[in-house]
Amino acid sequence: MNLRNFLSKLEKEGKLIRIKKEVSVRNEIADVIYSLNEQPVIFDNVKDYDFPIFAGITSDRDIIAEGLGTTKDKLLFKLVDALRNPTKPHILNNAPCQEVVIKNPDISKLPLLYHLDGDGGRYATATVATFKDPETGRNVSYHRLMEIGKNKFTARLIQKRQTRTTYDKIKGDLEMAVCIGNSVPVMIAASLGPPPGVDEFGIANTLYKTDLVKCITKNLEVPAESEFVIEGRLTRNLDREGPFVDLTETRDFERQEPVFEVDCITHRKDAIYQALLPGKLEHKILMGMPKEPTIYDEVSKVANCKNVYVTMGGGSWLHGIVQINKKHPDDGKKAIEAAFNGHKSMKHVTIVDEDVDIFNPNAVEWAMATRFQGDKDMIVKPDQSGSSLDPSGKHESGKKTLTTKIGFDATIPSDVDKSKYEVVKYREVDPNDYLR
Fold this sequence. Notes:
This protein has about 425 residues and is an alpha+beta fold. The chain has helices at about 5-10, 30-35, 60-65, 75-85, 160-170, 185-190, 200-205, 280-290, 290-300, 330-340, 360-370, 375, and strands spanning about 15-20, 40-45, 55, 90, 100, 125, 125-135, 135-140, 145-150, 150-155, 175-180, 210-215, 220-225, 230-240, 245, 250, 255-265, 275, 305-310, 320-325, 350, 380-385, 400-410. It has twelve helices and 23 strands. A hairpin with a 5-residue loop joins strand 15 (about 245) and strand 16. The N and C termini lie far apart (about 50 Å). The relative contact order is 0.12.
């Protein structure tokens, strides 16, 4: 479903709040979004700015499923299908996102938020960024942007991710377009992180028809119905980026990052700016949930994978639970290795049987307590490439973070009486039959 129709649908269903009171971009809007538990919301009256702000359309798996025309229990498999079967988007000559074209841009006119005291500056966070690698083609991902001047941001580029890899290998500036205000299919596709050469906009087009349009000043294509498009270049200049809160809800430290110089801004005539709270529900779900299909695909190569959950307790990034139908004694350990291949930033993964509810932390802990032995069911992998989001990792300037990864095989052993490992269930009766 496209963004405008989805917002209208949520409002008609009573799932979206509209706030008409004047609100400020300096912490106030972020505080209101947080206090609403990130329920979908539109702020109609933003102090000192011409554009309304919306947030919350990816804060809940049920809402995301609705935006993709499915249900929560079928969500993983819809994403798996789109990941495996991207379709080429249609290119338009004219598009809503280019109704207004600004060739001498001033980003101070955009309602970027101050989120928390101590942040390095105003940030754009719901930022779907696209560029082209000379060898593998178009890539789409997220990069937070910190305002540092009239037409300049610093862009956070993570080591060994595709944008940083392309940026490091080319000479000169790297053209990039950043889209703000996008449909759920575009937002989810940009989070998936498929192998190089797989077009994320093609994945979005499989999820829901997503037409593109060529940028005004760059050899790039962007979703035609984006609210804002910021066209620019990742330059060779570096400047301060951060501090800023990240997935783990801890403050990421200040770095020197590439300057993103803005050459043009286009937007719809009645554009709505999109906000996304760092470290909270939308951020976590957008980061973690799209890794579930990539884990599922890798585990499915070695075992009968039934479901995957990247947990909120692990910052929706560092911890995963994988459910398998165990058919061979070594399926659990094979699944551990495959899961780490499916999400290379994951730190800990637990493999469980089909009878364990992976969305219930008590059930997963029960499986660990009753089916796991540390001396034979644990795989420890020291000095692995890990996530910069983990404060306990080994961080060295200019190098990829190192961590120790651990896999827990909490499945029932193969050479036992399985009935001794299964939950005994009482028969449920109607208490009213006994209370009359």
